Amino acid sequence: MKKLLLGSILLSLNTNADFDVAKNIQKFDWNGLEVTYIEDNRFPVFDMGIYFSDGAVSDLGGIGGETEAAFNMSMLGTTKYTRAELSEKLEFFGASSDVQVTHEYTTLSLSGLSKDIKDLTKLTCEVLREANYPENEVKKVVNLQKNSMRSLENNHGALASRIFREVSLSDTPFSYPTGGKLKDLDLLAGQNLRKKMDHFLNSVKKRIYLTGPKSVLEIRSIIENDCRFSGTEAQFVRTPTYNKKVQNGLQIVFAPVEKANQVQVMVGTFLNSDELVDDELAFLSSEFLGGGFTSRLMQEIRVKRGLTYSVGAVISSQKTYGRALISTFTKNETIVELIKVIRNAIATSRGSNHQINDKQFSLVKQGVIGSYPFKFEKTEQFLSELMITDHTEKKYEEIFQFQDKVKNYTKEDVAKKIEEVFNEKRMTIFVLGDKSLLAKLKKLGKVKVVNTKSFI
Amino acid sequence: MKKLMTTLAVISTSVFLGACATQSKLTSKVISPTSPEVVKKYVLDNGLVVLISPNPKLPLVSYYTLFDVGGRYEGEGTTGATHFLEHMMFKGAKKFGPGEFESIIEHNGGNSNAYTTNDATVYYENIPSQILETIIDVESDRLQHLLLEPNSFESERQVVFEERKMRYENNPDGQMYLTLMKKVFEGTPYGQSVIGEVEDLKKLSRDQMMDFFKKFYAPNNAIIGIVGDVNPEKTIELIKKYYGPIAKYKELDALKANKDDLKRFEFKAQFGKEYRYHATNPLPKMNFGYKALKAGEKKAYHADLLAHMLSVGESSFFHKKYVDHDRPMISSISANHYNLRFSGIFYLDLELTDVADVNVVRDMILVDAKKYCEEGLTEKALQRSKNAIMTSGYHSLKSNAAVASSLINNQKYFGDFNYSQKEMKIYMQSTLKDIKDSCVEIFVKQDPMVVTLWNQFSKDKKEEVINLK
Fold it and tell me: What residues in B contact A374, CB-CB < 8 Å?
């Protein structure tokens, strides 16, 4: 076993806490495939994540949602087993599995008892390799998915999130829902799904993230021989390209729905690839604005005015794009007041005229620094962080330098970051609520009205 | 026993070995962080119970406090008082005024929240271990000297209204859950919504809340679970320093004995009927509710396994029977077993497709249910469910928070912080006959109550009632 122990790297890390989990990161090379392993002997269970460096962007120009369907429908049958036989076999282990398709990458995670890992891995790879997507089974799943999508119109929070993504990320490769839309579902065909899966298995670069007792490493031969994962042959890495998104001025978008007694509000900005720097500062800034009870938005909106139950702000980035967004809701009567309060909270937190006082800033900064050890409490959670770090082509050192980096930021740095990412000249305010609200919203400026059905 | 399924703790692997027929041998001995070998239990003179499970892996602590008060103690006209009070507990006390609680937690990188159920109110903080004493000070302060400051009382009332809309009024699943619980437990202390009726919430006064607080927020009505990087001996000294002087509420036992009289919890609702309501969901949602047992009874664990066997996964009986078709009438169906402290409900939760006729589906389920016990239960399905419960049991022990939650809930419900060990034994020793007996009790011997929500039902009728026979 070619073992690339990270000892040399870790010895040089400036860790503020000598956490076992950090010391235990090990790297292996399995037939050119990079494997990241953290030994965890507390319980006889394992967690495994298989990372594929391609995602829903691969569906652009083709059928929306095809990648997600290729993975999720792989259980519908293989050349050897029917759908029923497969589910009987896999579910008997009491294990859990999950597929997450983002625009840039895809992960398949598997979790169960460590003594079952070899059987589970072998079966999982057999499914991926031999899935034949029987037409009748695909049709059944498609019918159920249509049903589920129709129910979306009644779930205003989820619907708002879906529409906001599409309107605020328009003209980029990241706006279309990863699972596709209703119109895409009928176009899914077994042959194409198989081709898509072959692309992921044979061409796309993969990595494995694993935790559990040492015995879990015995899956190496299965990964190499049954899964036939090869790091030397499968090298494709998706790096989406796009013209820099430029938005000229504030955009207010309204999606009317029937008889809603609560209105969903999302505010945000698309971040181009050249803006994805200083992750730690972005995190600190989003925590200041909407990270907890003491955050500026929570104080202004909930604590002082009782306008909502929850509000949150996030500034996050993947490898080639990022998003800054605020998400909340309120009663119909207070929609205009809520938007004014949000805009004012942003305005007083940004630029050279910011009103961030030392006490507020210190509170948030110390909080962000103090929250650091929580990253390590669950090994599988920490492995996910390593996976994202690898995906974004950053170094693990950055994780361990987190506290030191945050310590050095000033409130001016935060105000500058908020100025960059929550600038009204490039911001979208999205409202989903009762159709009667349009007149009120027009008082805020020009409003673009969209039909919810076109986003489902 | 849905609540307990999520907090299953683990016993030594030898017990699992006996239950897991298909698996190769495990050799390692796992010591559960909920076991008496690890957990120290203390009872203060004022009745406060404290459970401490040290875990030095990281400099973190989870601090959980359970008060034995929930929606079941609210009288008519005061629904939602317990949950509203939970919100107000974050609004300042005498020593640590408004805003100070969250400042201390967040300044140190911790997080905190709370939840209220029919049976309990639980507050929790996940914090760096160096601020443990401060948190003990803060928690004991709000237990003794809650402000209930008038301005924030009114502001928070509005927040609760918005939470109610988010969780129930505008959430189809929440709406169905609330409707079903109110109908099934109608006339019992569990038959009112924990979030509260809007009219009651509008009228609830600060004085009513303070009265409620003084009666139920007492050390002899609380259990604290502390899990993480702590020294039990030093920690209990801190607890004694801050909580020790707080007087117990002497009338508590008498007050609770009256309110917890088991006769009050006997089912009074009319089963054998369908209740239809206009709602906003474009596809019909239908629930079938059956009377079930209170938490902790052996047969209740058999019902847990029954629910899992029937409906979890694509290989489950329900999925194959109802969903796996070219044009199914049912898009999703789950069996759920929800135990409360003094009662319980077993229910089927269905969402119908656009080709379904609600009457046809209802009648089909009513007929089919009588055959589930013969057709739907196999040895293989039982073993599958046991394997899943065992796996989730291990995973549930991975965080301090989950362990602390398990300790306080098991102590409250069963008087044994390590009760999950017994639960796991019951699960693993259950036989197919046990599950079939449980199945007969539910599906064969009972007529269910059906609740259906759909946007096609009449808006003008508050409720439409249909006899099932």
Answer: 60, 109, 126
Please report the pLDDT score of residue B299 as a whole number: 95
Unique residue bearing structure tokens 């997080």: B111
Q: Tokens 């205009």 identify what position?
A: A336
Report whether B372 contacts B443 (CB < 8 A): yes
Positive or negative, the CA dihedral B333, B337, B340, B345 is positive
Domains of chain A: residue spans and CATH: 2-226 (3.30.830.10), 251-455 (3.30.830.10)
Q: Does B324 touch chain A (CB under 8 A)?
A: yes
Average pLDDT of chain A is 92
B29 DSSP 8-state letter: P
Q: Which two tokens stand for residue B329?
A: 């009438």
User: Nearest residue on chain B to A212, judged by CA atoms?
Assistant: B395
First and final CA of chain A: distance in angstroms?
Answer: 49
Round the CA-based radius of gyration of chain A to a whole number and report it: 24
Q: DSSP 3-state assignment of A345?
A: helix
A360 lies within 8 A of chain B by CB: no
Q: Is pLDDT at A412 greater than 90 in this prediction?
A: yes
| Minimum distance, in Å, between the CA of residue B327 and any CA atom of chain A | 7
In angstroms, the CA B251 to CA B253 distance is 6
Q: Which of B58, B308, B317 to mutate to test the interface with A (most CBs of A within 10 A)?
A: B58
pLDDT at A13: 33
Q: Mean of the pLDDT values across residues A284-310? A: 95
pLDDT of residue A284 exceeding 80: yes
Question: Residue A257: beta bridge partners?
Answer: A434
CATH class of B270-467: alpha beta
* Per-residue pLDDT tens over the stretch B207-244: 999 999 999 999 999 999 999 999 999 999 999 999 99
Whether the predicted pLDDT of B359 surpasses 80: yes
Mean pLDDT of chain B: 92
Tens-place pLDDT, residues A209-256: 999 999 999 999 999 999 999 888 899 999 999 999 999 899 999 999
Q: Does B210 touch chain A (CB under 8 A)?
A: no
CB B9 within 8 A of CB B424: yes
Provide the residue count of chain A.
456
Tell me which chain A residue has its CA closest to the CA of residue B284: A151
Query: Do the Cβ atoms of B394 and A306 come within 8 Å?
Result: no
pLDDT at residue number B5: 32
pLDDT in tens, B197-209: 999 999 999 999 9
Distance CA B41, CA B225 (A): 9
Annotated domain spans of chain B: 39-263, 270-467
Enter the DSSP assignment of B31.
P
Q: Out of 3.40.50.970, 3.90.1300.10, 3.30.830.10, 3.30.160.20, which CATH number does the structure's domain B39-263 have?
A: 3.30.830.10
Tell whether B398 is within 8 A of chain A (Cβ): yes
How would you class B415 by CB atoms within 10 Å of its CB: exposed for 0-12, middle for 13-18, buried for 19 or more?
exposed
What is the ipTM, given to two decimal places? 0.89
- What one-letter code names the amino acid at B29? K
pLDDT the model gives residue B22: 36
Integer Cα distance of B391 and A92 in angstroms: 11
pLDDT at position A20 is: 62
Q: Is the pLDDT of residue B107 over 50?
A: yes
Quick one: tokens of B184? 């099934």
Q: Where are the beta strands (DSSP E) in A16-165?
A: 25-30, 33-39, 45-52, 96-101, 106-113
CB atoms within 10 A of CB A235: 12
Name the one residue in this structure whose structure tokens are 């135990």. Answer: B339
8 A C-beta contact, residue B168 and residue B175: yes
Using DSSP, state whether A101 is helix, strand or coil. Answer: strand
Predicted confidence at residue A23, as pLDDT, reads 74
The pLDDT value recorded for residue A21 is 66
B59, A17: Cβ pair inside 8 Å? yes
